[in-house]
Amino acid sequence: MSNQSVRGSRSSVRDRTDDRESATAVRLADVTHEYGGTGGRLRSGGDRTVTALRGVTFDVPRGAIVGLEGPSGSGKSTILHAVAGLLVPTEGRVEVAGTDLTVLSDAERTRLRRRHIGIVFQRFYLLPSLSARANVALPLVQAGVPRADRRDRAESLLEAVGLGDRATHLPGELSGGERQRVAIARALSTDPDVIVADEPTGELDTATGRTVLELLTDVGRDRAVIVASHDEATLSVADRIVALRDGRVDDVR
Asked: Region Disordered: which residues (predicted)?
């Protein structure tokens, strides 16, 4: 990874001084979410309702990394999707950067997500026909940032994650660790307040995973980061662990 930190590579994509005044970047309050039934998005056994989250409450301060721990089906991914505004919980509030996502329209949540939230997926989800630089710049296209500024921002971030010499490479020409670092750079492109990461080292070998974790630690110095993982090494970078079981908070440590 480059000696230039991600923190030091931040550009003036927009003035964020007012946005960073609050110490709490993410707040979940009594969040319950059900899949299924006649109006749900997931059916399991006909119309049977599946309760993924049950009264989940916790805060994530700015500058902190919170790890979500628990077996498959415990609700980790549902929490990430709720924080990212990809679903609206059945009950409760999800606040990001001081805004309750649950009262927003789909379009409003999309705008908030583009501005305030970066997402890192386990399987990278890079567009195979675009270069690393173009993949990183893609959220800036959606945000209406001028082309020259997009290019400068993408190159700065790739340099920061140690891939300055891979800017023109396609994802198929990169290793798994390099693709994940491109994905992290993409998540940072709009300078978000919050990063959510779902099993970010799940497809990486131990050494490469360690590099990605170092990068996430650097990212978390002035943002809120929420990481869901089964892996103890991944969770070891967290300042706080929220342990989940059957959709409930089982322990916080």
From this structure: 1-30
User: 76 and 228 in contact (C-beta within 8 Å)?
Assistant: yes
- Are the beta carbons of 89 and 82 closer than 8 angstroms? yes
Q: Could you tell me which of 251, 249, 253 has the C-alpha nearest to residue 32?
A: 249
Which residue blocks in the chain are alpha helix, DSSP H?
Answer: 76-83, 106-116, 132-142, 147-160, 176-188, 206-219, 232-235
Element (H, E) at 197: strand 194-198
Which amino acid is it at 9? S
Domain 19-252: which CATH number of 3.30.70.260, 3.40.50.300, 2.60.120.10, 3.90.550.10: 3.40.50.300
pLDDT digit string, tens, across residues 31-87: 999 998 654 444 444 567 899 999 999 999 999 999 999 999 999 999 999 999 999
Domain locations in the chain as residue ranges: 19-252
CA distances from 234 to 100, 172, 226, 237 (A): 29, 25, 11, 6
User: CA 147, CA 153: separation in Å to the nearest integer?
Assistant: 10
Q: How many CA atoms lie within 13 A of 213 on its CB side?
A: 21
The gap from C-alpha 17 to its chain's centroid, in whole angstroms, comes to 21
Q: Which amino acid type is present at position 201?
A: T
pLDDT digits (tens, 9 = 90+) for 214-239: 999 998 888 999 999 999 999 999 99
